[in-house]
Amino acid sequence: MFMNTNTRLVSPEFDYLQPKTLAEAFTMLADHGGSAKLLAGGTDLLVQMKMERQQPSHVISLSRVKELAGITEGDVLTIGATTSIRDVSRSGPVIAGYTALQEACNAYSTVSVMLMGTIGGNICNASPAADTAPALLVHDASAVLRSGKATRTVPLRDFFTGPGKTVIQPGEILTAVELPKPAKGTGSAFLKISRVVADISQVCVAVVLVRDGDTITDCRIALGSVGPTPMRMKQAVGALIGKRGTPEAFAAAADIVAKDITPITDVRATEKYRRHVSRIIARDALLTAWQRAAEGAAK
Amino acid sequence: MKKHTVHFTLNGSPREYTVNANELLLNVIREQEKLTGTKYGCGIGECGACTVHVDGKPTLSCLALAVSVDGAEVVTIEGLAKRGELDPLQKSFLDHNAVQCGYCTPGMIMIGRNLLDENPEPTEEEVRTHMRGQLCRCTGYASITKAVMGAGKPAPEFKIPAE
User: Fold this and answer.
1) N or C: which end of chain B has fewer CB within 10 A?
2) What class, spelled out in words, does domain A15-61 have in CATH?
């Protein structure tokens, strides 16, 4: 795949813009329209440009836009779009309340890429294999999209429209993701299968369970690398809500997951392998999340 | 394509460069400064050979535009030694024979230094987790891991392995 490209250089030519405020960024985006690209950590965009798959006329770097970075706690947890994956993984509120997201961040590539890569970049790149996407989906996250004129909040379940495609409109910037507070009795987990830890996932799964005694009162399951977008599993969830959380119930739900996903065979894994391990890691993630939910504190 | 004037400190000394927007930090370091310790490996963020510190954080210089580090402090492997004295981690790499062909070594030391700054006595697992982005194709990971764990401690005795 990389054989015919010299990755020592970025060969496409472009003009580099470095706004200091969001207002400046909107103006630049309006001036250069569809031929401009937003640059966050660069670990995806610059690789794409080296491959000449992306040849923007203008690159607008968001790294100096202070209002886009950082994590704030309020009615919801707001994670600024240019917050690094490393900072998300080490954030107190994330560690305390959003275990699946923390585990997804820790499973993300390598330390240097975690430090450079951003949560906004990871979801805007819209890879079906993005580690943070299934975790954000099960934590019921929303994407905050702003343009010069308006702000809209899109549930992440409606955000991805295909490989590399999202609902972001020209002139819009993803400024943050928002995570609602976890309900009492919540447990979550993220599991990933990859050739080596630093590799892109062959399959990954995230689970949130809410329990009241032995009963599952709410549940969300999402998988990555098993379809054109990160996928939520509605059938399997339907089979669990209101039921008792038993190993049998979780195994049955994992069977439904393995049926409902639409994986392909590619360079990383075969369709058959993906279905096989999806069942196993979905079951394991459900069992882990269930146990964590019992440990009391909302996690 | 507009040229940009960028200022940053490289290994403690202030520098000014005129670069194209698409110039990579790696190529400024290697070609303009002739500091060839920092290596070009994969070019796509998978091998870690080009790791430098930007404002103290390990950064892949093959995926960083030179314009984007304007105002930053950049440190390469050449900048770790202080007043002619090697960094304890560099010494430890020598003591543990943790270098074979040497291509991955600068990147290994830059990320290892970052780990030790955060956690001076890492476990083997912590070393392997933190350094999972550094590829060594001589596969000398065992000695490299020992070198990071042993940095700042007395040098190990050399023993001939038992048959």
Assistant:
1) C
2) alpha beta
Given a cut of 80, is residue B163 above it in pLDDT?
no
Question: Is residue A62 over pLDDT 80?
Answer: yes
Q: Which fold has domain A186-297?
A: Enolase-like; domain 1 (3.30.390)
Q: Indicate the domain borders of chain A.
A: 15-61, 69-180, 186-297
Could you give the ipTM of this predicted complex? 0.93
Distance from CA of B133 to the nearest CA of A (A): 5
* Cβ within 8 Å, pair B27-A8: yes
Residues B130, A111: C-beta atoms closer than 8 Å: yes
Mutate to test the interface with B, among A20, A44, A46, A118 (most CBs of B within 10 A): A46
CB contacts of A11 in chain B (<8 Å) are: 22
Return the closest-CA partner of residue B22 out of A44, A6, A49, A33. Answer: A49
Residue B79 near residue B12 (C-beta atoms within 8 A): yes
